[in-house]
Amino acid sequence: MEFKDKNILILGLGISGISTAKALYKLGARITVSDLRKEDELKENISQIEGLNIDLLLGTNDVPLDDIDLIVKSPGIPLNIDILKKAYKKNIQVVTDLELAYKINPNANLIVITGTNGKTTTTTLVGEFFKKAGYTTHVVGNIGVGLLWNLVNSNEEDIFVIEASSFQLENTMDFKPKVSLILNITPDHLNWHNTLENYIKAKKKVFINQGKNEFTI
Fold first, then answer.
1. What is the Cα–Cα distance from 134 to 2, expressed in whole angstroms?
2. Residues labelled catalytic
3. Which of 6, 11, 65 is nearest to 30 (CA)?
4. Which stretches of 30-141 are DSSP H helices?
């Protein structure tokens, strides 16, 4: 997917939002970042994108959508907020950084680990396996490291070991990693997903698009 000169709205200037903003800026997109927190609460975050030509709308998410081509939301932002309802009515695609990573580089070596418990430990361990084997390895995602900035600065042979939450997976459409791991599923985040079935559906998105050349564990 071509991002140059696209108008992209990023909701949330946390770890994933910063990484996304820097990556899309490098790819030539026109970026607006909205965050409900105010400037004095975000000084450290803002400093990480200082000098980039990015529009900041802080303390609000009441953003005009007329020219927006794509919305990238931080995983923890609920899907039922007003601005996203407006986006769906306008047929603006809403994604998280996982889907965007696949759009940027569908051939990247993505190993995605999800599950209710044990994700961080397993992601860290798998990352160490690849590092010890001599691969340039990026351990990213829900573990607390932004994915996209690492992705746009990587080489073809680099390995990405990604901890993925159900919140990240829920807004994927075409996303398919080379390898996916589902460690376990027990009832969790039901205040968000409403039912266990919806939670399971979100988790299943880690492998739902995989074909004969990809693997699920």
1. 32
2. 119, 142, 189
3. 6
4. 43-47, 82-89, 97-104, 119-132
